[in-house]
């Protein structure tokens, strides 16, 4: 089963469990209705993927993966409830509101399931799991680590902190080239990369930050909105480079400015 998670190779089974569980301690999946995300950027570049569940595409209407629900009963807090939930409940597959198979807690004797506050609006909602989450307790090796983390929050917190650092730092360049005030020290568990001195002058990120703030502030003060639009659509510029013919003159002029 660990072979399923090929995208996270170069990490141990224990690290994979910590990483997935730590990620899914927070947030929720988004798929409030079966009607999907709506027109893609190629079909509607001004308002891509608006969500067809109310059409604002935001909050309750957000549609991304098509699954729906949080993994824990307080998805804005760090804890090890994800691990406990996997072990403490019996889970059953069902089709969620977005039309995709996901997992919910089998009713206990009183007929109630654990609930979480809704991300938007009042009230509560069922917690859920994805098939890949359930796989963590089906596999005997991964299950050992789920058990460890469910009973020892400190060990989970440390394992997650280390593998998160590994995920975000390894293979992306020598430590000596990291810039900014929030750089954690190099860690013994990451790849030991060579550390040649940077060639030439490095970027002054505080200046970049200052310029961006000024641009956004100017934009808010009433010019034609071009800067804000550029920032909002900059991800489309990356696509424009690879598939230019699919985009209008408007996007191409923004991206080539
Ligand atoms: C087997 C591996 C994983 C699978 C299959 C998976 C799948 C998903 C899916 C389908 C969603 C819902 C997206 C949406 O509907 O908007 C999601 C959300 C999320 N995932 Fe994962 N994920 C995996 C691993 C991870 C890892 C390693 C992290 C971070 C360390 C992570 C962090 C999150 C977070 C924070 C959310 C919630 C986002 C939100 O609240 O909008 N996931 N994941």
Describe the protein's architecture and organization.
The chain is mostly helical. It folds into 2 domains: 2-152, Peroxidase, domain 2, CATH 1.10.420; 205-255, no CATH class. It is 37% helix and 8% strand. The protein contains 8 helices and 6 strands; from the N terminus they run αββαββββαααααα. The chain has a two-stranded antiparallel ribbon. Strand 5 (115-117) and strand 6 (124-126) form a beta hairpin. Helix 3 crosses helix 4 (140-151) and helix 4 (140-151) packs across helix 5 (153-169). The N and C termini lie far apart (49 Å). Residues 1-7 and 241-247 have low confidence and may be disordered.
List its salient traits:
257 residues; mainly alpha; Peroxidase, domain 2; 2 domains; two-stranded antiparallel ribbon; 8 helices; binds protoporphyrin IX containing FE
Question: What structural class is derived from the secondary structure elements?
Answer: mainly alpha
Low-confidence segments, ≥5 residues, pLDDT <50?
A: 1-7, 241-247
User: What is the helix fraction of residues, given as a range?
Assistant: 25-40%
CATH architecture of the largest domain: Orthogonal Bundle
Number of strands: 6
Query: Taking strands numbered 1, 2, ... along the chain, how are they ordered across the largest sheet?
Result: 1-2
- Give average pLDDT, whole number: 81
What's the short version?
This protein is mainly alpha-helical and 257 residues long. It has eight helices and six strands.
Per-chain topology:
Blueprint (H helix, E strand, L loop, with lengths): L12 H11 L4 E2 L39 E2 L10 H8 L2 E5 L5 E5 L9 E3 L6 E3 L4 H8 L1 H12 L1 H17 L35 H16 L5 H17 L6 H7 L2
Antiparallel strand pairs: 1-2, 3-4, 5-6
Helix pairs in contact: 1-4, 1-5, 2-4, 3-4, 4-5, 7-8
The site of protoporphyrin IX containing FE has 17 residues, from helix 1 and strand 1.
């Amino acid at each position: 089963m660990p072979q399923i998670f090929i995208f996270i190779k170069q990490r141990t089974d224990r690290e994979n469990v910590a990483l997935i569980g730590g990620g899914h301690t927070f947030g929720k999946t988004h798929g409030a209705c079966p009607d999907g995300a709506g027109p893609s950027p190629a079909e509607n570049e001004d308002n891509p993927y608006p969500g067809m569940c109310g059409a604002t595409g935001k909050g309750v209407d957000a549609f991304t993966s098509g699954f729906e629900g949080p993994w824990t009963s307080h998805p804005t807090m760090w804890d090890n409830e994800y691990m406990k939930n996997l072990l403490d409940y019996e889970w059953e597959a069902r089709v969620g509101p977005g039309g995709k198979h996901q997992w919910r807690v089998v009713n206990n004797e009183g007929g109630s399931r654990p609930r979480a506050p809704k991300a938007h609006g009042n009230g509560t909602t069922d917690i859920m799991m994805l098939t890949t989450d359930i796989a963590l307790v089906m596999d005997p090796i991964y299950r050992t680590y789920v058990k460890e983390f469910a009973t020892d929050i400190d060990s989970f917190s440390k394992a997650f902190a280390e593998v998160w650092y590994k995920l975000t730092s390894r293979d992306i360049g020598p430590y000596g080239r990291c810039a900014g005030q929030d750089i954690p020290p190099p860690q013994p568990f990451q790849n030991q990369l060579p550390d040649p001195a940077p060639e030439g002058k490095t970027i002054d990120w505080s200046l970049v930050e200052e310029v961006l703030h000024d641009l956004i502030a100017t934009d808010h003060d009433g010019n034609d909105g071009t800067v804000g639009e550029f920032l909002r659509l900059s991800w489309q510029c990356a696509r424009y480079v690879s598939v230019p013919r699919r985009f209008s003159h408007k996007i191409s002029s923004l991206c080539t400015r």
